Amino acid sequence: MKLDSKAMRHLTAEDWRVLTAVEIGSKNHEVVPTPLIESISKLRGGAGRVRHSISALAKVGLIARLKEARYDGYRLTYGGLDYLALHTYASQKAVYSVGNQIGVGKESDILVVADAAGAQRILKIHRLGRISFRTVKANRDYLRRRQGGSWMYLSRLAAEREYAFMRALKEEGFLVPDPLSQSRHTILMSLVDAFPLRQIASVPDPAGLYAELIALILRLAKHGLIHGDFNEFNILLKEEPIDPDADAEEQKQPSRKGKEPPTNNVKVTPVLIDFPQMVSMDHANAEMYFDRDVACVKRFFERRFHFVSTQPGPFFRDAKKTVGRDGARRLDAAVEASGFSKKALKDLEAAIREQQEARGPEGEQDPASADSDYDEDEDEDDDDDDDDDDGQPVNQDDDGEDGRGESYDEHSEVNEGTNRDDLTTPNIGRLAIKDGT
Ligand SMILES: Nc1ncnc2c1ncn2[C@@H]1O[C@H](COP(=O)(O)OP(=O)(O)OP(=O)(O)O)[C@@H](O)[C@H]1O
Ligand SMILES: [Mg+2]
């Protein structure tokens, strides 16, 4: 689903209260009964006012009515959860406007947003389970047996975990985006002005970059971590001129465009992103994850840059010996200690693993085809062939009234970006950019 912030400005303070009430009620109810929404939201206008807001929220798809449920009730949609997160960022003054979507992955949407001063940031919205309901049958069976194992809950868990890793890595001096804030199934981070390695046709020094990436894998291992998805989509390459004066000279040459061969006056630095799936070096399958990350780098460098390292490895058993060496802080332990229950982590891990399996072999990911097997309708009704409560067809209750002129607290309003094409085009630098990726 796409985040459409247009309806936000039409929501009243009461509507936000009612939306929040549905969220609170969702903690214990798959479908939140209307009387419960009324009692949690405690609006001055009473039940009538609450119903008015319910209609308005259902009309714009932020909550969905379950018509054939045993009782009359509503469920928060992904859209509703998106709005609540944006509302939180807006009241923190962390987000003022929403710009373009720069990525639609299978597991997340990536949007460029801006704060009131116009500083660009990245909003990552986790959407676990978006593709799995038809393609991975085992997924739904697995989750059905687990209480509270809804996809919304897992997406929130993925965001919390990713944020915890990003903070820990940042504190330790790893090059990752700045973790700015986290709310529900989303995280807010700094925008890295760089291209994913996937889009780079050639680099000045493949051997040097390869060594740097392997060193990064080993540095993570020393801190007790394996990235678990260390591929060309999750490594952004920042370019900086080695000699700024020489660079200024070259910029004057009209022939130098992005697709030209790379200049030697460029230093590329990898910035790592995408952390919800990170695992500990003590994980039962750590060796497999470690080897897979290493193999991913090797395969990509061979295919893209025709570079094959003369050195074998690195090997897990050697990396394992370095964990915690020289006083390296165990980041796996630090994140584990930040309050994720074992059961929750098992659920998340299974969900991420199955998402990755659904995505196909590494390096073969094709965003276009990834999108085509995603059915927009599945967001709102992910259980269309089941017979329990949440499996009923969901219809929006659109008996709402119009003519709602009020506007809610302007401090937390999120604006639609103007045409912020500039937000989404990082500076084209000196590296040759590959066509069609
Ligand atoms: N902080 C950032 N700055 C700049 N670009 C970013 C940032 N975070 C993400 N992106 C862009 O969005 C893409 C997807 O982000 P990310 O890898 O975090 O999501 P994902 O869940 O892996 O999505 P997918 O399902 O496509 O793998 C990245 O490959 C990158 O191009
Ligand atoms: Mg990714």
From TrEMBL:
First and last residue of the signal peptide: none
Cofactor(s) recorded in Swiss-Prot or TrEMBL: Mg(2+)
A GO CC term assigned to this protein in UniProt: cytosol
Catalytic activity: L-seryl-[protein] + ATP = O-phospho-L-seryl-[protein] + ADP + H(+); L-threonyl-[protein] + ATP = O-phospho-L-threonyl-[protein] + ADP + H(+)
The keyword Kinase is assigned to this record: yes
Stored SUPFAM superfamilies: Protein kinase-like (PK-like) (SSF56112), Winged helix' DNA-binding domain (SSF46785)
Residue spans of biased composition, Acidic residues class: 372-401
Domain RIO kinase: 67-325
Family that this chain belongs to: Belongs to the protein kinase superfamily. RIO-type Ser/Thr kinase family.
GO biological process: maturation of SSU-rRNA
Biased composition (Basic and acidic residues): 249-260, 402-423
Coiled-coil segments: none
Protein name listed in UniProt: Serine/threonine-protein kinase RIO2
Top EC class of this enzyme: transferase
PROSITE patterns on file: RIO1
Domain of life: Eukaryota
Single GO MF descriptor: protein serine/threonine kinase activity
E.C. number: 2.7.11.1
UniProt keyword annotations, A-Z: ATP-binding, Kinase, Magnesium, Metal-binding, Nucleotide-binding, Serine/threonine-protein kinase, Transferase
Region (Disordered): 246-267, 355-437
Species name: Xylaria multiplex
